[in-house]
Design a protein that fits this description.
two-stranded antiparallel ribbon; transmembrane; MFS_dom; transmembrane helix; mainly alpha; membrane
Length: 280
């Protein structure tokens, strides 16, 4: 579907989809101008008064939401977690959820008493409309499933702890990857994808919090830049590996993905716990 603007320009549905996907990033960039600076950064720069006022503002806002505006802000600040939610396009979801319909679409299919009346030469069969709609639907559901994961991880971050959040999230993601082997329908695959996205976003949120509490800005920014580059390379490598095993077996790519997630969760446990440390 779509609509026309004049006689020479047609605004198709994919353009609307792209614009809607751009809106969250645009709103985030605008909202960054109204957000205060990190109190930890201000403390490292020696601006204690500004950090104090920001912490007081956070405390007053939280107490007002809990119905206790009369509480007084004191210097016993146990922790400060800074979280940011971002749309996650997970590499493993791209690797594991590519259906094998394209290469083997008409295997074991029979056309009995089928005739076509068409003025043009050849047999004109178009199955692209349903596939295009399915692509948009899967992308929308995958992005929507991140929302409950963000909410749950934000509520349980201080109670569970950063390291347990990372390890548990990656372990649950590995289980979701393993059960993809038993998905024999589109609905089952989409459902496991949503569970995978909702579970894996908790590990990213915990990683964002613990890196802010452990490492300075320059090291953190460099590490995330390298990580994003490795994610792009992993997406290319994963698609190549998965396409080579599509016609053979699904066991190898699924086990590789699950093993990578379990290994990442175990490696994350070597980081120091920052849940009960005093902000210096």
């Amino acid at each position: 579907w779509g609509f026309s603007m004049g006689t020479n320009y047609h605004f198709h549905s994919w353009r609307v989809f792209v614009i809607i996907c751009v809106l969250p990033c645009t709103v985030s960039m605008v909202a960054l101008r109204f957000m205060p600076e990190s109190p930890r950064f201000l403390l490292e720069m020696g601006k204690h008064d500004e950090a104090w006022m920001i912490l007081k503002q956070v405390h007053d806002t939280n107490m007002r939401a809990k119905g206790a505006p009369e509480k007084v802000f004191t210097v016993s600040v146990r922790h400060l977690g800074q979280q940011r939610g971002a749309p996650l396009f997970t590499v493993l979801a791209c690797v594991l959820l590519s259906p094998d319909l394209y290469e083997h679409k008409f295997i074991n299919c029979r056309f009995i008493n089928t005739s076509f009346l068409e003025q043009k030469e050849g047999c004109h069969m178009d199955f692209e409309q349903d596939n295009d709609f399915l692509i948009y639907l899967v992308s929308f559901l995958g992005s929507l499933s991140v929302l409950p994961g963000n909410i749950i991880s934000a509520l349980l971050m201080d109670r569970v702890g950063r390291l347990k959040m990372i390890g548990g999230s990656m372990l649950i993601s590995a289980v979701c990857c393993f059960f993809l082997f038993f998905g024999n329908s589109e609905s089952a695959m989409i459902g496991w994808q949503c569970l995978f996205c909702g579970a894996s976003i908790a590990a990213w949120n915990a990683l964002d919090v613990i890196t802010v509490e452990l490492y300075p800005t320059n090291q953190r920014a460099t590490a995330f830049g390298i990580l994003n580059g490795l994610c792009k390379f992993g997406a290319i490598l994963g698609n190549t590996i998965f396409s080579s095993f599509v016609g053979i077996t699904k066991v190898v790519p699924i086990l590789l993905a699950a093993a990578s997630l379990v290994g990442g969760g175990l490696i994350a446990l070597r980081l120091p716990e920052t849940r009960e440390q005093v902000l210096m």
